[in-house]
């Protein structure tokens, strides 16, 4: 009997303990859930607290989504460069098409245009192939189009020197807009250690890209681009030198997935309208480790090292040298009342020396469209007249009429712009009807090089944004609230 009582007491005790455990767990879960809810509510409240000047009613507004940094699609690395005396082997399964085997003389005097055209046609018609422009030769080539689509990818290996005709209307009769053109190609690679020589001095006597009459009856009235890519994808240009173009040195029009690396572009400092790299209607472009300057030349005074025009997005420019000239520009956009669109552009780790402007966005009055998600970061300027420029009243001739319509500019960041200026550190002239919104300036350290003529304080007009971190000189003209 005592044993049964003992067992009953033990069972009762166990039931009581189990009941206590269940009650404790329930209380802990409730407290945990309450605490989690309190944390969520606290964080939500913090997110809703901003310096907007308005009270938060109802649900807090989320922070604006930051603009992404462009990440161009990975592309296969170009064939490693070897000594000029021997070219790398062609892609597996293809062949090498040496222009000398197709009748080129390579003496710099005889016209080798037909030989280049024949070598290209053969390479384009088969398995992955390589056109070879060998070293130690100089090839005179007239206006030519290397057109696709090709059956396979083609490498155009330039180890020698290609020169443009310097005179003769016959030589230029078929090429009014470009000299060397690559059209409608997929997987085209231009590489090597050779030189593309535009011999542009015949055109430089006029500052206009469209001359009123032919120069001495020898060259056409339209200044051609030296090297142009049109309607192509997976394009790589590496290692070559392009110099002395009549106008733009390297142009990409309606292209996708472009990489430019290890390229040198140069022309005398007084050559007009000789932009370095010109982009329009192109997406996913990666320009890096490229020299747009040298000791005495490149990207002439009055021209852009890199020019980004309408229809461009996902552009990444980094580790480039630029100068003199007009620095790195977006625009001019909206000319002749046109619509423009540029977005998601990052320029970083650039050196700009002796230029009139460092980084610039320029638009014409009367245009429409947008420029947004632009980031200039870690830019070093030296002896630059005005390092930071937004000009929505751009006009390249004496007088332009005032117009209300304008391209809308927003979400523009300047981060880590450091160095020396000679005239004015910052110039932000935005449209009256479309003020610039969300301009962010941080870590700006610009020092006046020395007093050489008249200098100006930072200027802002209809520019809205914020300052973060150290800013020198002080930029007090930037408006702190974004106009809706």
TrEMBL record:
It comes from the Eukaryota. The keyword Cell wall biogenesis/degradation applies. The keyword Secreted applies. Residues 63-92 have a biased composition (Pro residues). It is found in: Secreted, Cell wall. Residues 41-97 are annotated as: Disordered. GO terms for biological process: carbohydrate metabolic process; cell wall organization. Keywords: Cell wall, Cell wall biogenesis/degradation, Glycosidase, Hydrolase, Secreted, Signal. Gene3D superfamilies: Single-stranded right-handed beta-helix, Pectin lyase-like. GO terms for molecular function: polygalacturonase activity. PROSITE patterns: PROKAR_LIPOPROTEIN. Residues 1-29 form the signal peptide. PANTHER family: PTHR31375. Belongs to the glycosyl hydrolase 28 family. This is Pectate lyase superfamily protein domain-containing protein. The lineage of its organism: Eukaryota, Viridiplantae, Streptophyta, Embryophyta, Tracheophyta.
């Amino acid at each position: 009997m005592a044993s049964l009582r003992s067992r009953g007491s033990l069972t009762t005790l166990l039931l009581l303990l189990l009941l206590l455990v269940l009650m404790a767990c329930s209380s802990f879960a409730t407290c945990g859930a309450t605490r989690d809810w309190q944390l969520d509510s606290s964080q939500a409240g913090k997110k809703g607290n901003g310096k907007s000047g308005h009270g938060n009613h109802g649900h807090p507004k989320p922070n604006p989504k930051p603009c992404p940094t462009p990440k161009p699609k990975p592309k296969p690395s170009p064939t490693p460069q070897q000594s000029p005396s021997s070219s790398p082997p062609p892609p597996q399964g293809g062949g090498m098409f040496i222009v000398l085997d197709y009748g080129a003389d390579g003496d710099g005097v005889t016209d080798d245009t037909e030989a280049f055209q024949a070598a290209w046609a053969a390479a384009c018609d088969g398995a992955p192939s390589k056109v070879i422009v060998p070293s130690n030769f100089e090839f005179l080539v007239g206006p030519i189009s290397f057109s696709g689509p090709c059956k396979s990818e083609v490498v155009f290996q330039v180890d020698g020197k290609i020169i443009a005709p310097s005179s003769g209307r016959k030589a230029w009769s078929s090429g009014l807009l470009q000299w060397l053109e690559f059209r409608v190609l997929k997987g085209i690679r231009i590489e090597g250690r050779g030189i593309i020589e535009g011999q542009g001095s015949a055109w430089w006597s006029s500052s206009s890209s469209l001359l009123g009459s032919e120069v001495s009856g020898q060259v056409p009235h339209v200044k051609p681009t030296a090297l142009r890519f049109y309607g192509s994808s997976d394009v790589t240009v590496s290692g070559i030198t392009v110099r002395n173009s009549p106008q733009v040195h390297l142009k990409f029009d309606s292209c996708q997935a472009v990489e430019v690396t290890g390229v040198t572009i140069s022309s005398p400092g007084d050559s007009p309208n000789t932009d370095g790299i010109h982009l329009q209607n192109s997406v996913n472009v990666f320009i890096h480790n490229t020299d747009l300057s040298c000791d005495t030349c490149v990207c002439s005074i009055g021209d852009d090292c890199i020019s980004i025009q309408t229809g461009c997005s996902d552009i990444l420019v980094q580790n480039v040298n630029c100068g003199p000239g007009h620095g790195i520009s977006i625009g001019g956009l909206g000319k002749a009342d046109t619509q423009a669109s540029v977005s998601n552009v990052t320029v970083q780790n650039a050196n700009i020396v002796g230029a009139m402007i460092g980084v610039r966005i320029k638009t014409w009055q009367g245009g429409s469209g947008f420029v947004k998600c632009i980031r200039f970061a870690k830019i070093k300027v030296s002896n630059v007249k005005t390092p930071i420029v937004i000009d929505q009243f751009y006009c390249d001739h004496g007088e332009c009429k005032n117009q209300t319509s304008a391209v809308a500019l927003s979400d523009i960041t300047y981060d880590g712009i450091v160095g020396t200026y000679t005239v004015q550190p910052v110039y932000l002239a935005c449209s009256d009807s479309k003020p610039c919104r969300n301009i962010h300036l941080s870590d700006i350290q610009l020092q006046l090089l020395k007093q050489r003529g008249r200098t100006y304080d930072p200027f802002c007009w209809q520019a809205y944004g914020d300052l973060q971190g150290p800013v020198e000189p002080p930029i007090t003209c930037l408006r702190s609230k974004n106009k809706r």
